[in-house]
Design a protein that fits this description.
Layout lengths: L5 E12 L10 E12 L3 E5 L6 H9 L6 E6 L2 E2 L11 E3 L12 H12 L5 H8 L15 H13 L5 E5 L7 H16 L3 E6 L2 H7 L2 E6 L2 E6 L1 H8 L3 E6 L5 H9 L10 E4 L3 E6 L2 H10 L7 E3 L3 H9 L6
Parallel strand pairs: 3-8, 3-9, 6-7, 7-8
Antiparallel strand pairs: 1-2, 1-4, 4-5, 9-10, 11-13, 11-14, 12-13
The structure holds adenosine-5'-triphosphate (ATP).
Adenosine-5'-triphosphate binds next to strand 2 and helix 1.
GO molecular function: ATP binding; ATP hydrolysis activity
Membrane topology: Peripheral membrane protein
Family: Belongs to the ABC transporter superfamily.
């Protein structure tokens, strides 16, 4: 079996800002020796809090920013110095504020289509893909935040690139608009595009990405499939039930009667409304709760990427 070629290969990428001249503050290593591969067709996420270095890394991967060290290749070709042969194959989502003034949604797209020499018909196809057909005649500045984001994604796709870069595509959207955009991004990936996205939303990365690189202070702290990173964490499962149905005292008695020694016993916690049992062996605990008829309000919560981040950095996630 032949191996799928890597779409992107980044090796030892470094980028520093500032540190020269007076009053410029301490130098910042925005990207600190980052290496990664993105496979063709993959949905890859770069995840991290504000200032982690995501945008800088993305711009270097896109070939828009020169690194101080290291190399980036797209399908084997270097992206820097600016490689015009790659422009047709890469789509970069513009910030919505970068639209041409006073053009309608269709005209914005037509302008990008013309720049790339995309075939006629692409504009209406793209409007349809991003669900903006009925907004074709609306000036871009009159679109809602979610609609503007979708238009900017359509602009990035109009020339049918193989690889699409999206920088925080759902920032500042309400939950419903974010969900709609997630569906669109999945659809784009399902059409065979490689997608590289930055986000500081853990749930977004967990939902969308085949693999994520968790970044902080310029470094990749962990890289892998979200479920794999969560599994590696080996964190306890939190089982919570209605405290009225199972007060903490009763939970303690129930837990004490479980077989398997004290090590395997869940920790008991409580909030006003819930009794919470944390355990790495949820099956016997759930069985005991069922037997005691204490399943009212049951919620079972495994670890998430947010817990992975907390474990990696030792601090709460800073969005
Ligand atoms: N043009 C620049 N000049 C100087 N410092 C910069 C520049 N761009 C970014 N930085 C600094 O580099 C670090 C990484 O910034 P970057 O924008 O890449 O992070 P980010 O993870 O994308 O953050 P955000 O989520 O806020 O967009 C930050 O400390 C930032 O202040």
């Amino acid at each position: 079996m032949t191996e799928t070629p890597a779409a992107i290969t980044a090796r030892d990428v470094v980028k520093r800002y500032g540190g020269s001249g007076r009053g410029r503050g301490a130098p910042v290593t925005a990207v600190d020796d980052v290496s990664l591969d993105v496979a063709a067709g993959e949905f890859f996420g770069i995840l991290g809090p504000n200032g982690a270095g995501k945008t800088t890394l993305l711009e270097i991967l896109e070939g828009l920013r020169e690194p101080d060290g290291g190399t980036v290749r797209f399908l084997g070709q270097p992206v820097w110095p600016r490689n015009t042969a790659l422009l047709d194959r890469i789509g970069v989502q513009l910030q919505a504020s970068a639209f041409f003034e006073r053009l309608t949604a269709a005209e914005q797209l037509q302008t990008f289509a013309d720049l790339y020499g995309a075939p006629s018909g692409r504009v209406s196809e793209m409007l349809d893909l991003v669900g903006l057909t009925d907004k074709a005649g609306t000036p871009a500045e009159k679109l809602s935040g979610g609609q503007a984001q979708r238009l900017s994604i359509a602009c990035a796709l109009v020339h049918d690139p193989d690889l699409v870069f999206l920088d925080e595509p759902t920032a500042a959207l309400d939950p419903q608009a974010r969900r709609n955009l997630w569906d669109l991004l999945r659809e784009i990936n399902a059409r065979g595009k490689t997608v590289v996205l930055t986000t500081h939303y853990m749930d977004e990365a967990e939902f969308l990405c085949d693999r994520v690189a968790i970044m902080d202070t310029g470094r990749i702290l962990e890289l892998g499939a979200p479920a794999e990173l969560v599994r590696r964490l080996d964190a306890p499962v939190r089982i919570s039930v209605d405290a009225a149905a199972l007060p903490p005292d009763r939970a303690r008695a129930l837990v004490a009667a479980l077989p398997g020694g004290a090590d395997g016993h869940p920790d008991i916690g409580a909030t006003d409304a819930s009794t919470v049992l944390s355990t790495r062996r949820p099956a016997p605990v759930l069985a005991a709760l069922a037997e005691a008829d204490a399943l009212a309000g049951l919620q079972v919560r495994g670890a998430t990427l947010e817990d992975v981040f907390l474990a990696l950095t030792g601090r709460e996630y800073r969005a």
